[in-house]
């Protein structure tokens, strides 16, 4: 029996490229049958694969006797020749206790693996866990990603026992005389997984008159194949269409919405990941991403995993929220004022009108200095701002001007506005106001210039 199990684990490791040999591997050791079997099996395989094994037991502190379990797993490590350390974590009591414990456990494993320099973290999930997860996802109404259930490999996490049945592992431990800890919480029916394991799955097996674990694992395998293809398509599309900015990715809305919806959602999901998002894509997140692709688009940004998806005109922006608060500052004439919030500086220059040529670049604007009376102020946009633009005989809302100019929503607060005595005379880099136009009668010119901020002088 042990030889058969070892052969199956070797096959799983090779098939999913979990190990190449020579790695440092951290084993998550709860002390239950599955993780104990993982410790034992990897210890048997370690010499042939030149593996350096370590184990970590995470004490969640949720029940009495957890300290005794820590002593037991240390003795177990001594028995099989693998060093075991114990990490005590604090589990949040808000929301799902099971999910909070999982989050704390994974964080402890990642941190310990970093300290060890471990290339892999091995978890003891089995084929039974996979089948139970598929049923849980079915009950939740999951899509392809949910039905793919537990991945054999995710980043540096590997699951060498994912193709084995729990009963076979228990038999191996019994034959080898390796003890394990029975976790009483595994019998607690308040957890959905336990109800599926002890009640629903046996009932379905009896109704079907055949074992269901293998068929359910095949469902997960086929869903994983579809998911891998979907992710591969999305990688290509994201590389093709994304334009990188310092703090965001910009995607063409038309090209994105022309994709099949599952591919478009996956493109957004990957863009979120590249932008630093840290969330598991549950059904609610899928719905939010789909909403970002609707027509008409949402009027407010959609937030998933701390990353904002904002749709404006022909563009979709995926990135962290930017808090741009451009305070009002006086503009010295002549002189320079730094605008570090938007990475710009505003320079005011006086020049004689004789021979002066009115600039055509959007970053420069000229006024009749004698007619532009009053101190200049540069500031950010405010609610209710209005402007009478050059060549326009009526005053209108600044917001409408920006929409007509197709300024993306996320850039509107980054535009410096120059005002004189409460009237906007220039929307920096975009449009000047009607005030103080340069004419043949002008004698002195006030030129304003927007330039990248010189950080050495700022």
Give structural notes.
- This protein has 458 residues and is α+β, with helices and mostly antiparallel strands.
- It has helices spanning 2-15, 33-49, 66-80, 97-116, 127-140, 144-147, 166-176, 192-208, 213-241, 253-257, 261-274, 283-292, 398-404; strands at 24-28, 52-59, 84-88, 120-122, 153-154, 157-158, 243-245, 248-252, 302-304, 307-312, 315-319, 329-331, 335-339, 344-352, 364-368, 376-379, 386-387, 396-397, 417-420, 423-427, 431-432, 444-452.
- The strands form 5 sheets. The protein has a 6-stranded mixed sheet with strand order 3-2-1-4-6-5, with helices on both faces.
- The longest helix has 29 residues, at 213-241.
- It is elongated and about 105 Å long.
- The N and C termini lie far apart (73 Å).
Find the count of extended strands (DSSP E, 2+ residues). 22
The low-confidence parts are: none
Number of helices: 13
- Across the major sheet, the strand order is 3-2-1-4-6-5
pLDDT averaged over residues: 90
Strand content: 15-25%
Shape: elongated
In whole angstroms, the N-to-C terminal distance is 73 Å
Radius of gyration: 31 Å
Could you estimate the helical fraction of the residues in percent?
25-40%
Helix/strand/pairing class, anyone?
alpha+beta
Largest sheet: 6 strands, mixed
């Amino acid at each position: 029996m042990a030889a058969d199990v070892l052969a199956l684990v070797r096959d799983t490791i090779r098939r999913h490229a979990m190990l190449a040999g020579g790695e440092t591997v951290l084993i998550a050791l709860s002390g239950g049958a599955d993780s104990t079997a993982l410790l034992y099996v990897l210890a048997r395989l370690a010499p042939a694969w030149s593996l350096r094994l370590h184990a970590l037991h995470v004490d969640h502190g949720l029940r009495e006797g957890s300290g005794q379990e820590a002593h037991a797993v240390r003795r177990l490590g001594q028995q099989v020749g693998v060093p075991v350390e114990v990490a005590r974590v604090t589990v949040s009591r808000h929301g799902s206790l099971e999910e909070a414990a999982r989050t704390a456990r994974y964080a402890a494993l990642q941190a310990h693996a970093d300290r060890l320099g471990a290339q892999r973290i091995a978890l003891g999930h089995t084929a039974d866990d996979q089948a139970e997860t598929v049923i849980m996802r079915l009950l939740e109404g999951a899509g392809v990603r949910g039905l793919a259930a537990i991945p054999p490999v995710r980043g540096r996490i590997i699951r060498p026992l994912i193709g084995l049945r729990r009963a076979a592992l228990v038999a191996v431990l019994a034959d080898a005389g390796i003890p394990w800890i029975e976790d009483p919480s595994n019998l607690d029916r308040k957890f959905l997984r336990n109800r599926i394991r002890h009640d629903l799955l046996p009932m379905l097996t009896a109704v079907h008159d055949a074992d269901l674990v293998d068929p359910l694992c095949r469902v997960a395998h086929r869903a994983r194949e579809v998911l891998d293809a979907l992710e591969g398509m999305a990688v290509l599309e994201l590389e093709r269409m994304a334009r990188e900015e310092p703090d965001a990715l910009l995607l063409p809305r038309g090209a994105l919405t022309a994709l099949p919806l599952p591919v478009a959602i996956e493109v957004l999901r990957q863009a979120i990941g590249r932008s630093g998002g840290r969330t598991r894509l549950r059904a609610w997140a899928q719905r939010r991403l789909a909403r970002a692709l609707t027509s008409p688009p949402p009027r407010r940004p959609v937030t998933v995993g701390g990353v904002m998806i904002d749709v404006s005109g022909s563009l979709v922006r995926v990135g962290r929220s930017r808090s741009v608060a451009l305070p009002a500052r006086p503009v010295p004439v002549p002189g320079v004022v730094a605008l570090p919030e938007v990475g710009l500086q505003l320079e005011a220059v006086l020049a004689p009108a004789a021979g002066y040529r009115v600039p055509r670049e959007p970053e420069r604007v000229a006024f009749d200095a004698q007619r532009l009376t009053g101190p200049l102020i540069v500031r950010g946009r405010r609610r209710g701002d209005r402007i009478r633009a050059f060549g326009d005989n009526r005053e209108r809302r600044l917001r409408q001007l920006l929409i007509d100019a197709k300024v993306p929503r996320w850039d509107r607060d980054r535009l410096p506005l120059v005002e004189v005595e409460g009237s906007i005379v220039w929307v920096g880099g975009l449009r000047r106001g009607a005030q103080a136009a340069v004419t043949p009668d002008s004698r002195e010119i006030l030129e304003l210039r927007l330039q990248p901020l010189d950080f050495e002088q700022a």
